[in-house]
Specification:
mainly alpha
Length: 178
């Protein structure tokens, strides 16, 4: 337990306290979907650290974006072996060693549906009730059924939040003057 605690504290020191909140959130997903026999807390913590480490430019102070972007990476992380952080690269101590192919597929599908629901809730609708319904479908009754907890960004803020993309130059037809 001390090695796990030290490892996680080092990860929090590296990435920030958001890792604690993300780990708790994904443990809540596990509990809400009654999968506590399938995926352990340490496995969720290790997968969260790996997934969060691959999120490009995680936004500071925006847990909603961090949880969505990390959730999008979790199915890929969970599809590979998850090693016990106290015993790195020790095949006999893998956290998912007892998973069957069906277990792994079911767990990856759960976290893919989490990512899809969070994307819809944060990007796919401006209706607070719809967003809250999606969030509650992921986290269960832990989330109060109170739409006033949700704040909407202005349309300008949403547009500014998108990454710029190059556009093709417009085709300008030949013209004649005169």
């Amino acid at each position: 337990p001390r090695k796990i605690e030290d490892w996680f504290n080092n990860a929090v020191a590296l990435h920030g306290t958001i890792l604690r909140r993300l780990s708790r959130a994904y443990k809540g997903v596990r509990d809400a979907n009654k999968m506590d026999d399938d995926i352990g807390s340490i496995c969720i913590m290790a997968a969260t650290v790996l997934a969060y480490g691959t999120v490009p430019n995680p936004p500071a102070g925006r847990d909603d974006i961090a949880i969505r972007e990390t959730a999008a990476k979790l199915p890929q992380v969970l599809s590979a072996p998850i090693y016990n952080p106290a015993f790195p690269n020790d095949e006999s101590k893998r956290l998912c060693a007892d998973w069957t192919a069906e277990d792994r597929q079911r767990i990856c599908a759960l976290f893919q549906s989490v990512a899809d629901s969070l994307t819809y809730a944060t990007r796919g609708t401006a209706d607070k009730n719809m967003a809250l319904a999606r969030i509650r479908s992921v986290f269960g009754d832990r989330v109060p059924n109170d739409p006033s907890m949700i704040s909407s960004a202005s349309q300008a803020a949403l547009i500014r939040g998108q990454t710029p993309q190059r556009q093709q130059k417009p085709l300008v037809p030949r013209t004649r003057s005169g």
